[in-house]
Amino acid sequence: MKVIAMIPARYNASRFPGKLMQDLAGKPVIVRTFEAAVNTKLFDDVYIVTDSAIIEKEVRKITPNVIKSKKEHECGSDRIAEAVENIETDIVINIQGDEPFIDTFSLKKLIEAFKNDTKKEIDLASLKVLLSDQDEINNPNNVKVITDNNGFAIYFSRNPIPYHRNTAISVSYYKHIGVYAFRKEAILAFYTTPMTPLEDAEKIECIRYLEVGKKIKMIETTTQSIGIDTPDDLVKARKFITEHHE
């Protein structure tokens, strides 16, 4: 089973333009993410897929595995699908360019899910982590996920889900971490499917898979990654890398 990692790297992020080129302890965020992916030693290859000549020029200093998007794309999955179409692989791992601290253990669990899926029921696998802080639960930048009894995603939302109407019972809230593992055929099918209404409303790309009937296996992890969505997140990331990495 061949497994590759693809890192979509869009320059003009709506909430924090240019964030992937921001300095993170002496290196751009996108370089930190690429090096972290390579250092897991889980992948046959790691690629960066970008729409930006600025990012392309920077990352070519460290790797030839850079693919420039030929088309404009609304989301990272579309960007990856275009890039992976002519690459021979079984499983494609999408590592968000703004999450440089994804851990090896969680990635390994995603890959194992496919190795153990003898009936090929899983189209995608992704990560979730338990939320306990109420502000984090209510934060619309944190995408929440609910699953069925077999761990397959039912829905993703920026709102807190489930709605806790019956306070006599306890409920758990899970944050979706933006690391996806796809069967190659699933991501190519996504690429040829127009954006769906709920996906467009929530601006959460994995909802498209649910709307067209694909199955997403959610793997729980205890590691809370630091995604860099805002300038405040970058400050937290700099603090974290100073304390834990160097």
Strand-helix topology:
Elements (H helix, E strand, L loop, with lengths): L2 E7 L13 E2 L2 E2 H11 L5 E6 L2 H7 L6 E3 L7 H9 L6 E5 L8 H12 L8 E8 L2 H5 L5 E4 L5 E5 L15 E11 H8 L5 H6 L4 H5 L4 E5 L10 H14 L2
Parallel strand pairs: 1-4, 1-6, 4-5, 7-11
Antiparallel strand pairs: 2-3, 6-10, 7-10, 8-9, 8-10
Describe the structure.
- By secondary structure, the chain is of the alpha/beta class.
- 31% of the residues lie in helices and 24% in strands.
- The protein has nine helices and eleven strands.
- The protein has helices spanning 29-39, 53-59, 76-84, 104-115, 134-138, 184-191, 197-202, 207-211, 231-244; strands at 3-9, 23-24, 27-28, 45-50, 66-68, 91-95, 124-131, 144-147, 153-157, 173-183, 216-220.
- Strands 1, 4, 5, 6, 7, 8, 9, 10 and 11 form a nine-stranded mixed sheet that branches. It has a two-stranded antiparallel ribbon with strand order 2-3.
- A hairpin with a 5-residue loop joins β8 (144-147) and β9 (153-157).
- The protein is globular and about 55 Å long.
- The two termini are 35 Å apart.
